[in-house]
Every structure is written in structure tokens, then in C-alpha cells.
């Protein structure tokens, strides 16, 4: 009952402020909702099934423009994909202005792999707070780029829940940094990325 009362108050405030509300868009209390294209179920962030089906049904691009469109379709879900940037880097190569479009075996492999990753992407969250919650950040610096993943664990959980995966390729001279410098960079950027998800909550940083 309290949920309905608060919902009605919010609607009245919005109407009073001059907003128009479509009745077809109003949804009552539910354990599952889709908002701004993202599926939320019991607090978990998921890729909607129709999005997965659309992406996995896509044919290999035949031009730079089609490759850019494909990258745009999958890029929104990159937080669900471990080492996303490293996987799709061959696809970005064919979109560069200085490069002619050439779809080779490397691009085809990356295209097939990222579609598989999207099809089997894990749900993220929900974010939990409290003294018993342990936030564990894993950072790594590989030969092709940096990657991080943030997990939450509470007593009784062995693996924990993933809150997000981040990654990027090396930029400019950073590719020539020493392994130690790359690990430091990965840890620094990992903490920054994780802080966007959990704010000022404490993090346990683990590196290889």
C-alpha cells in the first residue's frame, strides 16, 4: 500500500510541474522492469533477451559504417563483458580513417567472440552496503591493454557478485611502459572506475 501511495505522490508532483505522463508507460510494483533499454530484475542489471537476439543475429559488417554501427550496438553493454576492449580491438582497426576497410580472419574471430560474450553475459549487481560487505577489485595489465572487475562478497558467499567489468587498450606511449608501470596504471584506473559504482565504500585491490 505504501508503494502505491508514494507512486501516486510522485505522479502528482510530476503533473504539477507540467510533465505529461503516458498511462501506457506507467507500471505498478514489479520484480522486473525495463528502463532506458536495460532490464532490471530483483536489482540485477541484465541485457534484455531481445537485445541479445538482435546482436547475435547480425551479419558480419561489409563497410566501416556497418562496423561502427555494430560497435555502437554492443558498446553500451561493455560493463557486462570481461576484457571487452581487447576482444573488439581488431574491429576498431578497420574503422580508422587511415585504414582501408578489410575484413579478415582476425576481425571475423573478434566478431564471433564478442557475439558469444554478449549471449552469455552475466547479470550485474545489485550494489550492497554495510559492514559485512567486502568490495573486491581485480586489476590486470596484459600485453594488449588494461582490465578490471569489481565484485561484492558477504559472509557465506564464495565467489561473490560481479558489479562490473572495465577494460581499455593502451594509448600512445603507454604501450611501451614497463610491466610494473602498467600494473600501477591498471590499479589506479581500476579504483577510479570502481568508485563510480560504489562511491566511497572501501575496496580490496587484488593484482596478479
From TrEMBL:
Gene3D superfamilies: 3.30.70.270
InterPro entries associated with the record: DNA/RNA_pol_sf, Rev_trsase/Diguanyl_cyclase, RT_RNaseH_2, Viral_Replic_Matur_Polypro
Pfam families: RT_RNaseH_2
Reverse transcriptase/retrotransposon-derived protein RNase H-like domain residues: 103-196
Domain of life: Eukaryota
UniProt protein name: Reverse transcriptase/retrotransposon-derived protein RNase H-like domain-containing protein
Natural source organism: Hirundo rustica rustica
Amino acid at each position: 500500500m505504501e508503494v502505491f501511495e508514494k507512486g501516486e505522490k510522485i505522479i502528482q508532483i510530476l503533473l504539477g510541474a507540467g510533465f505529461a505522463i503516458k498511462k501506457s508507460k506507467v507500471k505498478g510494483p514489479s520484480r522486473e522492469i525495463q528502463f532506458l533499454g536495460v532490464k532490471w530484475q530483483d536489482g540485477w542489471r541484465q541485457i534484455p533477451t531481445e537485445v541479445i537476439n538482435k546482436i547475435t543475429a547480425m551479419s558480419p559488417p561489409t563497410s566501416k559504417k556497418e562496423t561502427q554501427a555494430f560497435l555502437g550496438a554492443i558498446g553500451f553493454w561493455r560493463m557486462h563483458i570481461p576484457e571487452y576492449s581487447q576482444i573488439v580491438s581488431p574491429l576498431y582497426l578497420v574503422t580508422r580513417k587511415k585504414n582501408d576497410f578489410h575484413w579478415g580472419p582476425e576481425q571475423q574471430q573478434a566478431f564471433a567472440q564478442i557475439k558469444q560474450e554478449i549471449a552469455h553475459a552475466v547479470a550485474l549487481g545489485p550494489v550492497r552496503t554495510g559492514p559485512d560487505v567486502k568490495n573486491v577489485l581485480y586489476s590486470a595489465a596484459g600485453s594488449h591493454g588494461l582490465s578490471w572487475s569489481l565484485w561484492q562478497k558477504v559472509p557465506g558467499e564464495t565467489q561473490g557478485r560481479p558489479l562490473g567489468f572495465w577494460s581499455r587498450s593502451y594509448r600512445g606511449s603507454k604501450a611501451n611502459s614497463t610491466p610494473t608501470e602498467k600494473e600501477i596504471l591498471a590499479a589506479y584506473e581500476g579504483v577510479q572506475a570502481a568508485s563510480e559504482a560504489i562511491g566511497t565504500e572501501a575496496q580490496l585491490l587484488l593484482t596478479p
